[in-house]
Specification:
Blueprint: H1 2-19, H2 30-33, H3 38-48, H4 61-76, E1 80-81, E2 90-93, E3 105-112, E4 117-127, E5 133-134, E6 137-138, H5 142-164, E7 171-178, H6 186-193, E8 202-208, E9 224-228, H7 235-249, E10 252-254, H8 273-276, E11 282-286, H9 305-324
Parallel strand pairs: 4-7, 4-8, 8-11, 9-10
Antiparallel strand pairs: 1-3, 2-3, 3-7, 5-6, 9-11
């Protein structure tokens, strides 16, 4: 009898150890960041920006396929859907919100519930739509914003790996893939006007839009990422970001486009702005524009996958700190 049951008891004990709640502040997040790899990012992006998804134009068949792809991914990781709809991974946006200009679409949303502060939310965003097809050519949008999309997929896997080992984040983490960004930030606008989780309890938004390429200004030194908005509302969030980079990643953080007088006005041109306008601290991660921006030549073989991995890890480490620190980032520069 002992020989039969002892292995079973040992197996159950091991499962219990794995799922037992542990002190998340005592574990090194590098242990989980290792799951963010250039090879997986490449595998996902070659699929996500393939011709099968037809450029992911809002409301069209290719965008629907992309939404299903994301839903299946989060379901496979046992990360729960974030809405209360019949399809809990979708936040449906009716065509009427677009004034009938585009077909109905959906944001894709999932959540890892926090252990100690489950009603405080860190939202990580990217847009998963692109511009579709023009004159018979498919605009694959590998960098814009396939790169941000697959980065969030890998970041979610890293957090779920921590959960599976008993290190659940203190705050809830929402993984939000928004639609209709190319139509005027409309998917994130819809979420901000119809939030699934209260905006007053949303502690920060980390938004990733194009992080897979190198722009002309950095051809001699590709170890960079542009950060926009990190200090606009919260000095606290800016310092968290700087510390995470110094400790773990050591990218050159370029704040060129953070200048209020920058003529590109990128601060107002991606989905984070629909959080920032409600005084939610944000960081926008960006690689700058390049010759393939909004061209059919924005394809996955041009992505710098090692650099994409490094930038995704920066977002993960920053998210880890925001999710697990004692206090939410303090808004010391409110605009409202």
């Amino acid at each position: 009898m002992k020989k039969i049951f002892l292995p079973v008891l040992l197996a159950l004990a091991l499962v219990g150890c794995k799922t037992q709640k542990k002190d998340v502040t005592e574990v090194d997040p590098m242990r989980f960041a290792k799951s963010i790899t250039s090879s997986e990012l490449s595998d996902y992006l070659y699929t996500f920006s393939s011709d099968e998804f037809e450029g992911r134009d809002t409301g069209m068949e290719g965008q629907k396929k992309a939404a299903q792809y994301l839903k299946d991914y989060y379901s496979s990781l046992n990360i729960q859907g974030g809405s209360e709809e019949d399809e809990p991974y979708y936040q449906t946006i009716d065509s009427s919100f677009f004034n009938g200009r585009f077909p109905s679409s959906e944001n894709v949303i999932s959540i890892i519930q926090g252990s100690e502060l489950p009603e405080e939310y860190l939202v990580i965003t990217s847009h998963y739509d692109h511009v579709g097809m023009k004159d018979g050519e498919i605009y694959n949008g590998a960098d814009d914003d396939g790169s941000g999309t697959v980065a969030i997929m890998e970041i979610a896997e890293a957090f779920q790996k921590a959960v599976s080992e008993g290190y659940r984040p203190k705050r809830s983490i929402v993984f939000l893939h928004v639609t209709a960004e190319e139509k005027g930030l409309l998917g994130s606008k819809y979420y901000s006007e119809n939030p699934i989780y209260p905006l007053e309890n949303t502690v920060a938004n980390l938004n990733i839009d194009m992080i897979g390429r190198i722009d002309e200004a950095h051809e001699e030194n590709s170890n960079y990422v542009y950060l926009i908005g990190s200090d606009k509302l919260s000095t606290d969030l800016h310092e968290i970001s700087e510390a995470a980079n110094s400790k773990y990643v050591n990218l050159d953080l370029d704040y060129t486009y953070n200048d209020e007088n920058d003529p590109n006005r990128f601060y107002y041109r991606s989905d984070h702005y629909n959080f920032a306008k409600f005084d939610i601290p944000i960081i926008f991660y960006f690689n700058g524009v390049h010759e393939d921006y909004h061209q059919p030549t924005d394809t996955p073989e041009k992505i710098e996958y090692d650099l994409l991995e490094k930038r995704a890890k920066l977002v993960f480490y920053t998210a880890w700190e925001v999710a697990n620190r004692e206090e939410r980032p303090f808004v010391d520069k409110p605009t409202l």
